[in-house]
Amino acid sequence: MKTMTKRTAVAALTGVMAVGMLTGCGEKKLDGTKTVATVDGTEIPLGIVSLSVREGQAQTEAMYKSFMGGQDYSIWSMDAKDGKTYGEQAVEQSLKDVELMYIMKEKAADYNVEVTDDDEQKIADAAAAFMAANSEETLQELAVSEDQVKTYLELQTYKSRMHDPLIADVDKDVSDEEAQQSSFDYVSISTADLSDDEIKQKKEDAQKILDDLKAAGSDGDLNEIAKSVDDSYSSVSGTFDANEDAAKEDSDEESDSSSSSSAYPDEVMKVLRTLKDGEIGPDVIETDTSYYVVKLDKVNDEEATETKKQSIISTRENKLYTDTTEKWLDDADINVEKKVLKTLKVTDNHKFSIATATPEPTEEAAATETPEVTEAAEETEATATPEATEETEATTTPEVTEAASYNTDSSLEVTDGNKVNIDYVGKIDGVAFDGGSTDGKGTDLVIGSGTYIDNFEEQLIGAHPGDKVEVTVVFPDDYQAADLAGKEAVFDVTVNGIYE
Length: 500
Description:
Number of domains: 3
Number of strands: 14
Order of helices and strands: EEEHHHHHHEHHEHHEEHEHEEEEEE
Largest sheet: 5 strands, antiparallel
Distance between the termini: 47 Å
Number of helices: 12
């Protein structure tokens, strides 16, 4: 049977989600009124879990699409752990998240957290606006009632307000010795999958860069020198733990898998630790997959050290939050109706997308504004999906508006909530991986949206248009691409500009 594609933009629920559903033939409608689980005797309707599932699905698909350079993809049918697909795993995780929100609501009073009558009115208004903005067909696909939307928004509000009280007792004392960071610049030239002659040429290039850098002295511009040898080469700035023993202790105690030193090969680290401020590595550094030329900037980079302190504190906060909430889940009396849960599916012919034009929610209410809804006529699967625009009238044929241009003024600074345009190349162990590059085409990202993995977005805060930023992240253990799951990657990011 030929699959037909129906795209429907659904009004935002929590300020981050809009849904474009690709409904396959014979798609079964959900019964959102059925009880999918009970938590300490409180029944959870399937409709609420459906909202959570679709929100998570939308965010994951947006992230995956960005890493695939906008190419088509299939992820949800892939095998994950314990004989489950990633789609099945996503449903189970969303149910767990909803269960936790119900527990948080019950424990809120213990942390002096409340949702006031005024909050409830705003939530009710937002839920009513959500229902009014969406078609009956769309609401049937989501299997939600207005009361369920209100409940979900209320639960999200409790979850948001419980976060800070839960981590209030974290030890925020981090010594300079523990956090001290050194900064450096480097050029990495990959030799992966090259012939012997090509590798020889790459080594000659690396040696030429090193010789020219030495001739220029400590004031030499490594990036300009690299590009003078080959325009495809460029330098990247990085940091690492100055105190190696403290870094190891921090990694052991805090499970800080994103320790900055671990992002670079041992051969590189061995040389860097012998250098002083402004010194250049004496030789081209050779690893199994790359040649490196390095120059130490500062043994003690105060700005990077302060950033590291905040990272250590954040790691401690995350651990306390996770340990506490996991214990709550373990102690709760939870019963899951597995037959009901199996009716909620995440598949590759039922995709969702995020509307970045939607404003962020306030703490007082999970959503107070509802964007307009657009619907596109039925198309075959091969037809390209039209991009969402800032403002589109409710019509069967959305008009294409001119895309806003970003500002390249280098005096601007990236802050939380900014929409930026970036390019990046991702590498694992110094080798670029498939789907990890924008190929110079640029991509938009809203800082703080949670679209990208780990703390990718946070590491761009403070950068300026034209800056090159090295971003180190760890792919989730359950990441859809098995060859990336659990691995640390370094992204060389260029900030092209900031939208105003």
